[in-house]
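Catalogue entry: protein

Sequence with per-residue tokens
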Amino acid sequence: MNTELLDKAIRRIPDFPKPGILFYDITGILVNPDAFTECINQMVEIYKDAKFDAVAAVESRGFLFAAPFAEKLGIPLVLIRKKGKLPGDTYECSYALEYGTATVEVHKSDIKKGQKILVVDDLIATGGTLAAAKNLVEQGGAEVTDFFGVIGLPALNYEKVLAPCKVTTLINYDGE
């Protein structure tokens, strides 16, 4: 894997969205076709033999990585969206962010009892968003077996929050 390519593409924005937060901006990956292709190819390589029934993506940057991945593996893409963005019957879960609170939802009809689901986001920090996504999947009777993030911030101890599920990231930052 070309970690250097990804590292160069990821911008660091201090004090965004509020003072004290170092924001890792993945838009540099998206405008660099080689870096974006590297991400998707690595996801496929990591999970090519996994037996997932679907991939769930967290709004909105998770969609960007999960959609081409789901298409390449030929599995359904389930959207986890911010509250009020889905028109049908939904499961919902509220959770704390590093810098506030939020609520996410998923269409009840998109989660099938007994499914094995991979949850994808662009960055894994405290694990709160992904834990909420897992809650949504479980409300529908399915199981999250793995989490994937392009970027991981392991110093924030997301693995404890997301255990016992496996967590995979392409690049990690331990604070700068």
About this structure: The chain has six helices and nine strands.
